[in-house]
Write a structure and sequence with these properties.
The complex is a heterodimer. Chain A has helices at 18-27, 49-57, 78-96, 113-130, 134-144, and strands spanning 9-14, 36-41, 62-67, 103-107. Chain A is built from five helices and four strands. A four-stranded parallel β-sheet of chain A has the order 2-1-3-4, with helices on both faces. By secondary structure, chain A is α/β, with parallel strands linked by helices. Chain B has two domains: 3-134, no CATH class; 141-264, no CATH class. Chain B has a five-stranded mixed β-sheet. Chain B is built from nine helices and five strands, in the order H-E-E-E-H-E-E-H-H-H-H-H-H-H. Chain B is of the alpha/beta class. Classes of the chains: A alpha/beta, B alpha/beta.
């Protein structure tokens, strides 16, 4: 019996809400899946779609993006801009064949430590079920291989 | 008098009176079915202008050439409706002053060329509205629908096959009137967002970024598609993006010169069904 697949997940979060929410989850001693690597950014508006592509390029099985609820942005409307961008980017990934299940979005406030822990757990479980992103990792391996002459 | 002759006469008048400093139009190409862009600045050369159903390239991209419009003189250009939409977008994105552009509008139905009335972009708003209402289909509607019906794995394989052909020549970028950035993201190497080698991974990234940057801006003129030396159906991705912004934000690119760019604006009640 092979070991259970442990997905690697990258989370891009805004520092004012979701990062604080993650902190709350930690200080509340909530246990959640250790598969997530959190990258803290000033605002969801700073999360360029390039980050998502970069995470996939480096072999992530899934990507999470999370920030302040609408209306709560520290910079007043960074998350509104981000929301439009994601809407379009999501459709693009879907059309290209990158399953939308691998890139998840959420609003998690600084008070929602429990939501953060649950979100991480449910996404990790979902991506574990999907398995490694083989189609993409094949491309990564090809790119690493020396050029054939 | 044919439209070709009418437009030649008009070009002659504009050039000899000094109303415009240049006319950008179509001239004969390397064979009977091809046309190439020509740049006329003397009234004596207007006979070189050709206008027929083979004039398909969107010429609006030449207007943002460095220094062309900086002397505040006017430039005339032959444009199809897509080209006129492109002018609106470029003006909305502060890349040019629409008042400097004199439009020779035309459209092709079947193989008949018809003139579009007007000189400045504002005068073509009815034409653009009617295109929006007619909800144009993708250039290769059958293939488009086939892709839409595929599973994500099949779609990935389809595009993998297509993108594996890409040689990263960036002809799609050069041909696109909307790709005017002085420094494109693929040319940036600190950080290097996109793999520059033409392996399939890098090709995926490049084509995703290209399509994303054109979301809500593409007018589907098909310049990229025709420029692609390996015939990747780039237009289909752009069409999908245009559909998305139209459906989600009721945004039809290039309806007016003051239209807010879709990804630089927002509404508080934008859809967010996908956000947990």
């Amino acid at each position: 019996m092979s070991e259970t697949f442990e997905p690697e997940i990258i989370a891009f979060v805004c520092t004012y809400c979701t990062y604080a929410g993650a902190d709350l989850a930690g200080t509340s001693r909530l246990k959640y899946a250790p598969n997530v690597r959190i990258i803290r950014l000033p605002c969801t508006g700073r999360i360029s779609p390039m980050f998502i592509l970069k995470a996939l390029q480096k072999g992530a099985d899934g990507v999470l993006i999370s920030g302040c609820h609408p209306g709560d942005c520290h910079f007043t409307h960074g998350n509104y801009h981000a929301r439009r961008r994601w809407m379009v980017f999501r459709a693009l990934l879907d059309f290209i064949g990158i399953p939308p299940e691998r890139v998840k979005y959420s609003w998690i406030s600084a008070a929602e430590g429990v939501k953060f822990a649950e979100f991480i757990n449910s996404v990790t479980e979902d991506i574990r079920k999907l398995g490694p992103f083989e189609q993409y990792t094949q491309l990564i391996d090809q790119a690493k291989a020396p050029a054939s002459l | 008098m044919s439209i070709e002759e009418q437009y030649r006469t008009r070009a002659k008048e504009l050039l000899s009176g000094g109303a415009v400093k240049m006319v950008i139009g179509y001239g004969k190409g390397s064979n009977a079915s091809r046309r190439r862009p020509i740049f006329i600045s003397s009234a004596d050369d207007v006979e070189r202008l050709v206008l027929d159903d083979a004039c398909i390239t969107n010429l609006s991209g030449y207007l943002v050439s460095e220094g062309l419009l900086s002397d505040e003189k006017r430039v005339a250009v032959f444009l199809r409706p897509e080209g006129i939409r492109a002018i609106n977008i470029l003006a909305a994105e502060s890349q040019l002053d629409a008042d400097q552009i004199v439009i020779f509008g035309f459209d092709v139905a079947g193989n008949e060329v018809k003139a579009l009335k007007g000189i400045h972009v504002e005068e073509f708003s009815d034409v653009i509205t009617s295109i929006k209402e007619s909800a144009p289909e993708a250039a290769e509607e059958e293939l488009f629908e086939k892709i839409e019906k595929m599973s994500p794995q099949e779609r990935f394989s389809f595009w993998q096959e297509e993108f594996s052909k890409c040689i990263k020549c960036y002809a799609c970028r050069q041909a696109c009137p909307m790709c005017y950035c002085r420094r494109c993201i693929v040319d940036s190497n600190q950080p290097q967002w996109v793999n520059t080698s033409s392996h399939t991974l890098g090709n995926f990234e490049w084509n995703i970024v290209r399509a994303f940057h054109l979301s809500g801006r593409c007018v589907e003129c098909g310049n990229c598609d025709r420029a692609c030396p390996v015939n990747i159906p780039l237009r289909l991705i752009n069409h999908r993006m245009a559909e998305e912004v139209l459906g989600a934000f009721d945004h039809f690119a290039g309806t007016s010169k003051t239209q807010e760019p879709v990804l630089a604006s927002f509404k508080k009640d934008d859809s967010e069904t996908f956000i947990l």
